[in-house]
Amino acid sequence: MIREYHPPHIYQDETIYFITARTKDRVNIFNTQEKCSLFFDIFERSLKKFDFEAIGWVLNTNHYHILVKISDGNMLGRFVQNLHSNLARVINKLDRSEGRQVWYQYWDRCVRSERDLYTRLNYIHHNPVKHGLALRIDDYKWSSYKDYLVNKGEEWLRDCFEKFPIIDFTLEEED
After folding, report:
1. What is the mean pLDDT of residues 11-18?
2. What is d(CA 100, CA 92) in angstroms, rounded to the nearest whole number?
3. Structural domain harbouring 106
4. What is the pLDDT of residues 22-50, one digit of tens each?
5. Is 31 within the bounds of a domain?
6. d(Cα 140, Cα 124) in Å, to the nearest integer?
7. Per the database entry, which stretches of residues form a coiled coil (predicted)?
C-alpha cells in the first residue's frame, strides 16, 4: 500500500505565502486562452472574497504558482478550496467533464525574508521558460511579469534577478 504524503500547513496572519498546485495526473487542462482567462477571473474573485493581495503569479498548462499576502492565516485553506472548486466546476462544464477531479493537491510555504520573496517572484516569472512555454519571460501572457515591467520597470526587474537569483523550488511531485 502506497501512502500519499500530505505536507502540514502552517497558518500565520499577515504573511506572504508561496502556493503551488498542480492538476491531477498533470493533465494540461489550461491549454486554451479561454481557460486561462477563466482561471484569472476566478483567481481575482477569490482574492477579493478573502481580502488577499496577489504579489506574483504564473499559470502553466498543468500547474500554477502564486505569491499572496493574507490577512487571516486560517483562511488560506479556504481560499485554495474556493479557488479550486470554482475553477473545477467551470472548467469541467466547459469540457463537458462534470465530476472530474481537476486538482491533485497544493503546497504552501511562508515567505520568510525579502530574499525569499524576491527569489520566489523571480522563479514565478521564469517558470514559463523553464517549462518550455515561452522562449523569453516577457513573451508569456499568463504571469505577473508584465505588470512588474509596467509598474517597476525593466531596470528594477533586471536588478531583482541579479540580486536574488533563481533557486529551483520544484517539488518532486511537480516534475
Report:
1. 92
2. 7
3. 15-163
4. 999 999 999 999 999 999 999 999 999 99
5. yes
6. 12
7. none
Amino acid letter for position 46: S
- 61 lies in some domain: yes
Residue 170 lies in a domain: no
Give the separation between CA 62 and CA 49, rounded to whole angstroms.
Answer: 25
79: its cell numbers: 481560499
Task: CATH number of the domain at 116, please.
Answer: 3.30.70.1290
Asked if the structure places residue 80 within a domain, the reply is yes
Angle at 45 between CA 62 and CA 156, to 5 degrees: 70
> Domain total for the chain?
1
Q: Running DSSP on this structure, what letter comes out for residue 132?
A: T
Closest Cα to residue 58, out of 119, 146, 163, 118?
Answer: 146
Locate 152 and state its grid cell: 517597476
Smallest Cα–Cα separation from 39: which of 117, 143, 123?
Answer: 143
Check: CB of residue 145 under 8 Å from CB of residue 125. Answer: yes
